[in-house]
Amino acid sequence: MRSEWKPYLKYYREFRLLDSLDFKIIRAMHEHDPFNVRRIAKIIGARQQTVNYRVLKYDRQGLVLFRAVIDEAKLGLESHTVLAEVPLGGEETALKALTCYPVWRYAAQVNGYVHGLYVRYAIPRNTARDLEIFLEKLVERDIISQYSIYPTSSPYIPLLNLDFYTGGARRFDWNVWVDQLLETRVGELRLEPEKVEPVEFDIYDLFILRCLERNARVKFTKISREMVKLFGGSLNKYRVLISRRMKERIPSIIRGYEVYISPVPPELALFLILLIEFTGEEPLAKYVTGLSKIPFYSAVYKAIGENKIFHHIVLPAYEYSGFINALETLAKKGALKSLKILISDLQGKKTWRNTALYQAYDKDWKFSYGILINALEKLL
Known about the structure:
By secondary structure, the protein is of the alpha+beta class. It has four domains: 3-66, Winged helix-like DNA-binding domain superfamily/Winged helix DNA-binding domain (Arc Repressor Mutant, subunit A, Orthogonal Bundle); 76-154 and 354-379, Lrp/AsnC effector binding domain/regulation of amino acid metabolism (RAM) domain (Alpha-Beta Plaits, 2-Layer Sandwich), CATH 3.30.70; 162-192 and 260-344, Lrp/AsnC effector binding domain/regulation of amino acid metabolism (RAM) domain (Alpha-Beta Plaits, 2-Layer Sandwich); 203-248. It is globular, with a radius of gyration of 21 Å. It has helices spanning 6-15, 20-31, 37-44, 48-61, 91-98, 128-140, 174-183, 203-214, 220-231, 235-248, 250-253, 281-290, 320-332, 369-379; strands spanning 65-70, 77-85, 104-112, 116-124, 146-152, 254-260, 269-278, 298-302, 308-316, 336-344, 351-353. Helix 2 (20-31) crosses helix 3 and helix 9 packs across helix 10 (235-248). Strands 2, 3, 4, 5, 7, 8, 9, 10 and 11 form a nine-stranded antiparallel sheet that branches. A two-stranded antiparallel sheet has the order 1-6.
């Protein structure tokens, strides 16, 4: 056994001990919020002491991680996803260049129909051209070979189907999933950001959001200590500020909560990023709605104004053929128009997250082509 797998295998063994009550608690925390254990106990009809014990176990063992999902539009930001082809051997330099300034949100080194980097940015409104000119400069300097850029939604992250893990099944039935998906009636699915005016916020709010994006159950005292180190001031000042902001401002900026659970053993995991084009809005809505029936982690980013999505999914390798066959069946049934597949590596540390948006803010968002170039020159 490779030594680096031992923590993952320990996690997997502990995950298999979770029962139906645990999953009921996790679902309620996802739907409502991960903070108020008393409220969760009341909602599911369980003793508060029991719920509190189990939630503390999730925290202590790292079994379940709750992350805040931010409504970036309310911060005056737009999401853009870039797929950059990179010369073989130039991946490290390209990664530094594409993430040289802290408006990137997610990055992954990928192989498949493109060898290179997949990067999502959250940039101020009406600044997409600055990003494009910067990418063109990277092409001129042979840091990347070419690129595609897609205006995309913020992430939609459904809770995976936890009931699958209480039934004793070893394989997921993709045929049943396809049949149910095609028969499902769905209403309007709002994935694209609504046109909203930015809410009132400051750098303190952005830092609090950064902490909640990393772990939504983080203690306020821990956030306060970090703020003292970064901004100066007293611990009590930030305790009071955080408590007030969590009541007044922060809830309106949080779209919901991501539940990160990893039931797939590391030696079996495949991390796929699919670019799927659908034949219409209804098949797209059915597909995205149906992801909550799949017992594996998914995240969706919709291409704005198109019937396309980027679908992130973590699968056991033995489920790959069943999943691809399901997509082929959907294409034969007239739901899918095209499919492009990228693969990345979670265990090989080829994916990265950035929650430090506050570093690009000083009473206003600081972003332009010139700022990007200056940041690039400092790194390379």
